[in-house]
C-alpha cells in the first residue's frame, strides 16, 4: 500500500536518526513506502532542509547506482556553547569536591540527556575522519564511549585495569600513572580490535594523561592507529602532561580543598573546533 | 516565521524521539513552529498513526491545561522475536566459548545496534511501571543500563566491586557469589540513589544470581524498592538460584567445554511479556 508523504517523512526521519553514518539506498525507501523514486527524492530534500535548519545533522547524498543518503549527526555552535557552559556551571558545584581534590561526576555521566549531548559534541568533531572504533577505560569512560559510538555508529571497546576471565585472551601494556608515578597495567581483549583500525580515545577525566597514554600504547600493540583523544573534563596538572593533542569539553581550573571550593570553565573544544562548527552553521 | 507541516512533522518526530517518557505541552510545539494549536494537534495525530503503524512507539495524549503528549518507545512482538532469535544464534557461535565455560559477549555489548534493541526490549517490558533509576554492576552491565536508561529516560547508577575515590562516600553490602560460594563486597555512591526510588536491575549475564541478589540488598540499604530484574543472558545453574523473578532475553542452555560447543535459545522474555507485547500489536 502506498504511503502518504506525511507518514513517509515521519518514518524516514526515525529510520535515519537511528542509523547515523549509514548509507541508505533510495530504492530501500521507495520499496518500503511503495512510492516512486522521484517522490522519495523530494521527501529527502525536505528532511535535508529541516535537519539543516534545526542543526540536527547533515543529510549527505551519495550519487550513482550504489548511492543513497547518509545522515551525519551534528551539533550547532550555539547549542554546543550552551551545553558546555551548563556543564562548567554544574562542575563548579561545591558539593562535587571530594577528598584529594577529585570531582564527583557519576550523576552527570548517568543522565541520558547529558550523555546524548556529550556524544553529539564529540561525534561532530570527528565527522570527516575515518573512525572504526571508540576506546575507553573502565569504568567511568564507558558511558561516554557508548554515546559517541552511537552517534558515529561504530563499536566501542573497553580497556580494563583488572583481568577478567570473561574477556578471553588479552593484550596488556604497562603504563605510568602521571598523578601517582606508579606503574600500572591495562589490558584489552585480543579479539576486540582489528589491525589497521582508526581509534578514537575518550575518557571522563584527564589529569596527567597517564591512562590515555597507556591506551595509546595499546593501540600500537594492536597495529591500529590513533585518530584523536577527547575527554569530558580535564583537571589542572603540575608538571608535564603526557598527552598534548586532545580536546576537553570542560576544564576544572581551581580546586581549593581548604576553602572547599572548585571552579570549572569551558575546555578547549570550542576553540579547537571553531572552523568545523562555523562550517556547519549555514 | 510559520513553519510548513512537512517541516514540523520531521522536527517534531526528532524532538519526541530524543525525549522518551517526557511530557511535551502542545503550546511548546505551537510556539516553536508559530502554528495554531489545532494544526499541532493534527500533526500529532499523524505522528501517532505512523508511530503505531511502524511499532516505533506510543504517542500518549495527556488532556487538560497541564497536558500535552508523551512518546513511549516500544518494540513490536515480531521485531522482538527476530532480535532474540538473532542473539540466540550469535551466542551459539563456537568461538565465544571461553575457558571455564564463560561466554564472550563484549563484541555484542559494544555494538550500538545491538544495544539499541536490548534497550528497547527491556524498556517495553516496564512501560507501565514507575522506574526512577536503572541499576547495574560494573563493568559489562553498564552498556545495557545506559541503553535502557535512555529509552526510559531515567538515570542509571553503577554499583562497583572495587572502591574508588571518585565516588565519594559509599554504602556497601556483602554478598555471596552463588557460583564460587565466596563472600564479596559491592558498593554504591551514597548520593547516587534517593530513598523511595523504584529501581530496575539489569545485567549482562546471570548464573547463580548472587550479584543480582547483592544489588537487591543495596536497594534496601538505600530505602529504595526493586521494580524488576532483567538480564541479557542467563546460563544454566546447578543448584538453587538466588533470584527467581527475572526476565532474560537469551538463555545459554548447553555448554560443552570438551567438545568446545555451546548452544543458546530464547530466554523467558517473550513468554513473560506475551500479554504486554500482544497489547501493543494493534
Automatic annotation (TrEMBL), chains A, B:
SUPFAM superfamilies: PRTase-like (SSF53271), Winged helix' DNA-binding domain (SSF46785). The keyword Glycoprotein does not apply. GO terms for biological process: negative regulation of DNA-templated transcription; negative regulation of purine nucleobase metabolic process. GO terms for molecular function: DNA binding. Coiled coil: none annotated. Residues 108-240 form the Phosphoribosyltransferase domain. Residues 4-73 form the Bacterial purine repressor N-terminal domain. Keywords: DNA-binding, Transcription, Transcription regulation. Belongs to the purine/pyrimidine phosphoribosyltransferase family. PurR subfamily. Homodimer. This is Pur operon repressor. The lineage of its organism: Bacteria, Bacillati, Bacillota, Bacilli, Lactobacillales.
